[in-house]
Design goal:
SAICAR_synt/ADE2_N, single chain, alpha+beta
Length: 346
């Protein structure tokens, strides 16, 4: 099981071919890589499943290969528009996911072993991140200056990012690790090594095409698509988009200048449970140089549950956003603007 969705195998993948399985979307949520938090957000799982399926079907119509096969409706696998209710299960093709050995602080992770086990059928151990905008809260603000993207006039004398979202002149693509205990952004050469036989240029091209499709859909429904990511499987020389695409967990969107994504929950914890947020940061820093790679073992704080009013507001936000993005009333909730107003009042 991942932190927010269950993973079921119907036919396992082999060295010679893809398998079949399902994602079962739960109402669990995760922030700061913690894993499952102490409570749940109703309708979140169904929102992510419906929105992810919608985007996969958009991509398929645009000729982008994916691992998506449909959603579960009763005992059948059907296209999203044939589902009678908000789905919570997505049928997918499966690839091999080998173990990634950790060899200690000096040797690091053994990607050669990962690729030796994966052969010609594996999940690429990278997340390919695309950015159209640099919102408040984006990690890019910590790792680069405005001038790095031709935005010399925004940084001022001190080179700082302004206190509002910044549109990038062109989409930026980055690569980060997928299976390490702490995600690392990689220089292109290292990302190419981690990708194995999957070509980094092809990964970037695929990410840019996914970004284009999701961005165009967002614009058509009143959203701004700020950033997101894809994961990919590699099978017999072909890359296919895997995991889930274009949801409020994987991507950042805004509507009328206000953000709609998991970032709402992250910012709530920063403001209301700062001791836990600080403990997470300290644990991630302190694991460096140790023989273990799981920083959670070193964290001496646990997160507080969200207050009921926050849970209700975030639930409505996910559901209302999904209704608007898919242009279908899956959920009986207020519209997006009303849901955003409720979040603003928290």
């Amino acid at each position: 099981m991942t932190s927010v969705k269950e993973f079921r195998v119907d036919e396992p993948a082999t060295a010679d071919g893809l398998g079949r399985g399902r994602f079962v979307f739960t109402d669990a949520y995760s922030v700061f890589d913690w894993g499952q938090m102490p409570d749940a957000i109703p309708n979140k799982g169904a929102s992510l499943c419906a929105m992810g399926a919608f985007n996969f079907e958009l991509l398929e119509r645009e000729g982008v290969p994916t691992h998506y096969r449909g959603v579960a409706d009763s005992n059948e696998i059907v296209p999203l528009d044939e589902a009678a209710a908000p789905p919570t299960e997505m049928a997918i093709d499966l690839t091999q996911v080998p173990d990634l050995p950790y060899e200690g602080p000096h040797a690091g992770y053994d990607y050669d072993a990962y690729h030796a086990a994966g052969g010609e059928n594996f999940l690429v151990p990278l997340e390919v991140v695309f950015r159209n905008r640099v919102p408040v809260g984006s990690s890019l603000r910590r790792r680069a200056d405005p001038a790095d993207f031709g935005l010399d006039d925004l940084g001022g004398a001190d080179g700082e990012w302004p206190d509002e979202p910044v549109d990038l002149p062109e989409p930026v693509v980055e690569f980060s690790t997928k299976y390490e205990q702490q995600d690392r952004y990689l220089a292109r050469a290292e990302a190419d090594e981690v990708a194995g036989v999957a070509h980094i240029e092809a990964l970037e091209s695929l990410a840019r095409e996914v970004n284009r499709v999701v961005t165009e859909r967002a614009e058509a429904t009143g959203f701004v698509h700020e950033d997101g990511k894809i994961e990919c499987l590699y099978v017999d020389g072909e890359l296919r988009v895997a995991d889930v695409v274009g949801t409020f967990d994987e991507n950042r969107f805004s509507y009328g200048g206000r953000g709609i994504s998991k970032e709402v929950v992250r910012q709530w914890y920063k403001a209301n449970d700062p001791d836990w947020v600080a403990a997470v940061k300290a644990a991630k820093e302190s694991v460096a140089g140790r023989d273990i790679d799981d920083w959670r073992e070193l964290c001496d704080e646990s997160p507080d549950p969200l207050p009921p009013a926050v849970v209700d507001a975030v639930s409505d936000l996910y559901a209302a956003g999904t209704n608007a993005y898919t242009d279908r009333e899956w959920f009986d909730v207020p519209d997006v603007e009303a849901a955003l107003d409720a979040v603003d009042e928290l």
